[in-house]
Please model this.
Amino acid sequence: MFSYQYPHPAVTTDAIVFTILSEALHVLLIQRGNEPYRGHWAFPGGFIEIDEDLADCVARELQEETGLSGIPLQQFHTFGRPGRDPRERVITVAYLGFVPGAGVRPCAADDAADAAWFRVAAPPPLAFDHHEVLHLAHQRLINLVSTSAAARPFLPASFSGETLREFAGIIGMPPDARARLVDMLLLRGVIEKGGEARYRFAA
Model:
């Protein structure tokens, strides 16, 4: 194997998974069992294997640390500020998921001491730069709901504009964006009229 004379950064993946529980947006966190930040909460994730794909790494770490598998994840940002990890230079590729919470019960394993859902509005103290990661992931989630069918699993087959706006409020969408949401999704072809004052997601 060729060896470079210059130092190389390590690469990790993190899974930022959202759901809705008790009419509030929640995010999945694990309690770290090892240093650094032992006892602090963080996103499920870890170091990539040398022969592993990024998507395989994030799915593996999510399953190993929380017991959850089969959750659709999409890559949304890369975090690489120097000093964000006290161990070494670490670049993290973050993935976002948004799933219905019914029946999705995490169970801590591997190097996670615990795993649980937390309200996005009141997270515990987070390890590393994960408060920054959470903020950006939340903004990306709001953008997805504004531009795609990301809300489909959470709404009935036929819904009113008010129901859609209430859902948008639960995930933290600003009032002005909520007011425009139906028109924007109609314009993009994401939803279509499904009867008098009713809508449905386009096929």
Remarks:
- The radius of gyration is 19 Å.
